[in-house]
Amino acid sequence: MFKIGRNDRCWCGSGKKYKVCHEKSDEKNLEPFAEQGYPMPDRSLILTPEQIEGVRKSAKVSVAIMDELDKTVGEGITTNDIDTLVSKLTAEAGGIPAPLNYEGFPKSCCTSVNNVVCHGIPNDTKLKNGDIINVDITTIIDGYYSDMSRMYMIGEVSEEARLLSERTKEMMYAGIDVIRPYMPVAEIGNTIHDIADKYGYGVVRILCGHGVGLDFHLDPIVNHYRSSKKSMILVPGMVLTVEPMINMGTHECDILADEWTVVTRDGSLSAQWEHTVVVTENGAEILTI
Ligand code: MF3
Ligand code: CO
Ligand code: CO
């Protein structure tokens, strides 16, 4: 399991010795899963209260930036304008936009319009009436990463586009609501996929949520689709994203020649919402709120 000595400080950050803190409950809650071969989180994925506080501060900055975007994103502005604003607001807050130069990504945020599923690169195209767009930002503050995204409806959008966005948000919250400590992470995807099926939507499979906080993309992999594979057990102090990408048509996607932009194969609309959450003793707390 955690390979912690009984006399070492407990992983939870209480400062107490492991044997008088979480050792007993770990044995009870984790051993049954460990025996069945479920992957256990590495100790480094469990944040101390101080580290969680760091991610919380970062998340507050991300929310403030996103709230500014709420006032700005609309008809006639370009996705480059959005990028410029994210870059400026992040710098003013003393932060760094994690996407910039990440594995060669050229901009400070992702802007994914209509049939773009995610990782859209900001450019000079103006947003027009009827578009839907996801803006995804990740902010680094004092070394701590917070990752979030929202959808925006430009002018008057079709009823089906608005519903796709609203229902994708519903699926993100349902995926967060189901989180409990000592639960396999795949339960998140099982919950989301059930709702998507009800609406007849496709759940994107080639991209996933992820551990976050001390770095941009960490374990565990948070799939949004149904899976019976043995997945990592969640424990209090783990920080991760829930970020379903939901297509009006099938789940299938293609990646454009720029090697970033992910689009729906059938050209249908796609929506995404993302929060960063921390697993607690009785559920999950949303940090990017
Ligand atoms: N923010 C995205 C996520 O939710 C990752 C974007 S990677 C980038 O994981 F390089 F495209 F920015
Ligand atoms: Co993410
Ligand atoms: Co993101």
> Briefly, what CATH class of the largest domain?
Alpha Beta
How much helicity do the residues have? 25-40%
Q: Looking at the structure, what is the overall shape?
A: globular
What's the Cα radius of gyration?
Answer: 19 Å
Number of H/I helices: 5
Overall residue-averaged pLDDT value: 97
Largest sheet: 4 strands, antiparallel
Sheet-strand content, in percent, reads 15-25%
Q: Using the coordinates shown, work out and report the CATH topology of the largest domain.
A: Creatine Amidinohydrolase
How many strand elements? 15
Order of helices and strands: HHHEEEEEHHEEEEEEEEEE
Number of domains: 2
Which cofactors or ions or other ligands sit in this model?
2-amino-4-trifluoromethylsulfanyl-butyric acid, cobalt (II) ion
CATH architecture of the largest domain: Alpha-Beta Complex
CATH-level-4 superfamily name of the largest domain: Creatinase/methionine aminopeptidase superfamily
Assign the structural class, choosing from mainly alpha, mainly beta, alpha/beta, alpha+beta, or little secondary structure.
Answer: alpha+beta
Measure the end-to-end span: 32 Å
Which blocks of ≥5 consecutive residues have pLDDT under 50?
Answer: none
